[in-house]
Amino acid sequence: MVKNVVIIALAVMLVGCKATDQEMNDSDSQISNSKLPIIKPNCSAPPPIENIWVLEPMLTEKGLIKEGMSQEKKESVIRSYIHKKNQQYSRCLKGKD
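^ thats the sequence. predicted structure below, dont judge the formating
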């Protein structure tokens, strides 16, 4: 009696496993045959800068602006930072970043 139950249990498990394998193969072929959407990077445009000097404290914290710099040199560093951010956005839109 116990042998019959064990044999039936094993048979049910084997049939169940085969069904699962077939279902997995079917779902794999469905995924590979379907066209998956291409995910584009989330490119967020930098906000327009109305007053470039609001960036000075942040760039000073990063060490790009030093205490002894002239106003013209500070402005050059700030404008360079803005230009780099705009370039990153452009590359992102083209899918290169």
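The mean pLDDT is 78.
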